[in-house]
């Protein structure tokens, strides 16, 4: 009986840990589509799970990093949600493609119009951003999630390297090494190289086909001449035989 009670108590304790740990892991996060390379452009998905059993998420605010302002921020339309973009003046203008950028997006807000994130569901909010900084390894996007019961959850605590995850961690975007071409030119170059290789292969194949055709034509001509020679030879022998018979007669 004692062992059974101990096992039961242990099971209840384990279940309690899982129940407590479960919701803590379901926080607002950011993930790139593909890679987020330094100096390049990327599409980011802000993933918002609903953590409450009796309330729905009706608003998301994402604050963009002021220490690394992004010159281009373009959210994708999400059915059932209104989008509001706030900009702020930059202390130091950005130089982008020969143009000076004096203001940058500081916050994007999605508000439910005729939709919401119900309990047990999540929603992704895509945003195209760039150019990503070259002098940073990550970007922190502080987010605020609002429920229809007026509850507000602030995902604004910055994680520390090697430390425990905060109770309300802010979404963090990890940046990868810079690509050769920040605008995806590397992929275009690869495609161009692939096209060049295909063209070279096609030319080589055509050359081989032409050579094979020429060889085949030469073989056909040689055979034809050979047959003609044989026919002439047979005709000559036949003529000699007939001439010999006439002389004998």
Automatic annotation (TrEMBL):
Domain of life according to the entry: Bacteria
Record organism: Streptomyces filamentosus NRRL 15998
InterPro entries documented for this protein: YcnI-copper_dom, YcnI-like_sf
Record bears the keyword rRNA processing: no
Signal peptide range in chain numbering: 1-26
UniProtKB keywords: Membrane, Signal, Transmembrane, Transmembrane helix
Membrane-spanning residues: 225-244
Annotated Basic and acidic residues bias: 180-200
Compositionally biased residues, Low complexity: 201-218
Annotated region (Disordered), positions in chain: 180-218
Domain YncI copper-binding, chain residue ranges per copy: 27-175
Entry keyword annotation includes Signal: yes
Pfam families named among the record's database cross-references: DUF1775
Protein name per its UniProtKB record: YncI copper-binding domain-containing protein
């Amino acid at each position: 009986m004692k062992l059974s009670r101990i096992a039961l108590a242990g099971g209840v304790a384990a279940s309690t840990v899982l129940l407590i740990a479960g919701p803590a892991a379901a926080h607002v996060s950011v993930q790139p589509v593909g890679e987020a390379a330094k100096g390049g452009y990327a599409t980011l998905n802000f993933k918002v799970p609903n953590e409450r059993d009796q309330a729905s998420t009706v608003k998301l605010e994402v604050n963009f990093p002021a220490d690394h302002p992004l010159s281009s921020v373009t959210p994708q339309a999400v059915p059932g949600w209104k989008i509001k973009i706030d900009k702020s003046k930059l202390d130091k203008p950005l130089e982008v493609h020969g143009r000076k950028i004096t203001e940058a997006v500081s916050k994007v807000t999605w508000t439910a119009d005729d939709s919401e994130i119900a309990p047990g569901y999540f929603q992704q909010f895509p945003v195209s951003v760039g150019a990503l900084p070259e002098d940073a390894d990550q970007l922190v996007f502080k987010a605020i999630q609002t429920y229809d019961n007026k509850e507000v959850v602030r995902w604004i605590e910055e994680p520390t390297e090697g430390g425990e995850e905060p109770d309300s961690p802010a979404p963090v975007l990890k940046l990868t090494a810079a690509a050769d071409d920040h605008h995806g030119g590397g992929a275009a170059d690869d495609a161009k190289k692939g096209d060049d290789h295909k063209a070279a292969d096609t030319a080589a194949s055509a050359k081989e086909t032409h050579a094979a055709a020429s060889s085949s034509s030469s073989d056909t001509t040689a055979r034809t001449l050979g047959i003609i020679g044989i026919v002439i030879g047979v005709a000559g022998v036949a003529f000699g035989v007939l001439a010999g018979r006439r002389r004998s007669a």
